[in-house]
């Protein structure tokens, strides 16, 4: 009887843990995403940059949406990385040729749209960096092939 009760408790804990993991999956549609990045401070307008990316269903959201690849010649430490079903927040501290702190957040207001900010501070080849980027992502279509 005790053994059976123990198995029931283990099953319940396992199901709860699986449900919690599922709840933390990012609620964003796979497919073709258009990302618009606005840089520059007030009074120093820089043209927006637009990029397109095909995001697979099992893609790493830190690379697909937050765009946080770590360059091999940099030493970067992930700090404060939090993912919920509707948001990504992070802090990435890099040293080396680029001594940069990258702090940001992205919030999905639907499975097809997000907005966010990225604050970059530090030095780039000896030049100071202190800029905030504004991001907007829009799901546009399904991808037709992995090469999209």
Notes on the protein architecture:
It is a single chain. By secondary structure, this protein is α+β, with helices and mostly antiparallel strands. The chain has one domain (25-141). The protein is built from 2 helices and 7 strands; from the N terminus they run αββαβββββ. The chain has a 7-stranded antiparallel beta sheet with strand order 2-1-7-6-5-4-3. β5 (98-110) and β6 (113-124) form a beta hairpin. The N and C termini lie far apart (57 Å).
Give short descriptive properties of this protein.
18% helix, 7 strands, 7-stranded antiparallel β-sheet, globular, alpha+beta, 148 residues, disordered N terminus
Number of domains: 1
Strand percentage lies at over 45%
Low-confidence stretches: 1-23
Rg result: 20 Å
Shape: globular
Distance between the termini: 57 Å
Overall helicity: 10-25%
Number of strands: 7
The order of strands across the largest sheet is 2-1-7-6-5-4-3
- Report mean pLDDT, rounded to a whole number: 77
Q: What structural category do the secondary elements indicate?
A: alpha+beta
Order of helices and strands: HEEHEEEEE
Main sheet properties: 7 strands, antiparallel
**DSSP helical segment count:** 2
